Amino acid sequence: MPSKFIDVREYTVRAHKRQIHTRVFHFVCKQCDQTTQRETFGPRPLYCEECRPPQAPKKSHQSSQKAKPRAMTYKSDIDLG
What we know:
This protein is mainly beta. It is about 0% helix and about 30% strand. The protein has strands at about 5-10, 15-20, 25-30, 35-40. It is elongated, with a radius of gyration of 26 Å. The mean pLDDT is about 80.
């Protein structure tokens, strides 16, 4: 089973390298009905690389964080000292 190393850069975990195990699938493409093979680490693909070329991973957008309250200075007419 072929394996490869990928770079993981997510904001929720520290960046690291992870080894993923890929498999080569031999199947019939659902769109062009040609026998083909494709290497993937997920489930069995339905389409060949000509019909559905591999895409770059989607960027995960960071959720906007709630603003922290700021310290404020209040003035009073009453002298406590």
